[in-house]
Amino acid sequence: MNYIKQLNAFYNQLDFNPLSNNAILLWHSLMQINNKTGWKQKFTVAAKVITAKIQLNESVFKRARTELQEKGYIHCQSRSGNLAPVYEIIRLTIEHDCISNSTISDDL
Q1: Mapped to the 3 state alphabet, what secondary structure does 4-33 carry?
Q2: CATH code at position 58
Q3: What is the per-residue pLDDT for 1?
């Protein structure tokens, strides 16, 4: 995932799909955690870790997480027992392979 492109796309998306401040804070935290994982498609992190990091109580955190899920910014899959949920940040950009324009003739 290209962090800068994702960040820019996120803020562009907010114009059409706004979020609460707490949801924005949570999204940034999840992006930072996902960066630490090396941009794995799916990653786990305990709610207690996130709530401590961004200083939200559990109910506010859950509302923000639900908001991100409902508006299509993340997927979150709960697991049984004391296992941390599995998160997936939805890519807001499409990354393409670059094609060099240097092969195009100047005669065109």
Answers
A1: HHHHHHHHHHHCCCCCCHHHHHHHHHHHHH
A2: 1.10.10.10
A3: 84
What's the pLDDT at 100?
45
Q: For residue 93, what pLDDT is reported?
A: 85
Q: What is the mean pLDDT of residues 65-89?
A: 96
Q: What is the mean pLDDT of residues 63-90?
A: 96
Taking the C-alpha atoms of residue 37 and residue 31, their distance in angstroms, rounded to an integer, is 10
Backbone angles phi, psi at 75, to 5 degrees: -115, 140
Q: Per the structure block, which two tokens stand in for 51?
A: 């709530």
pTM of the model: 0.84
- Domain that residue 61 falls in: 3-92
Q: Is the dihedral of CA 43, 38, 60, 22 positive or negative?
A: negative
Please state, in angstroms and rounded to a whole number, the distance separating the CA atoms of residues 49 and 61.
11
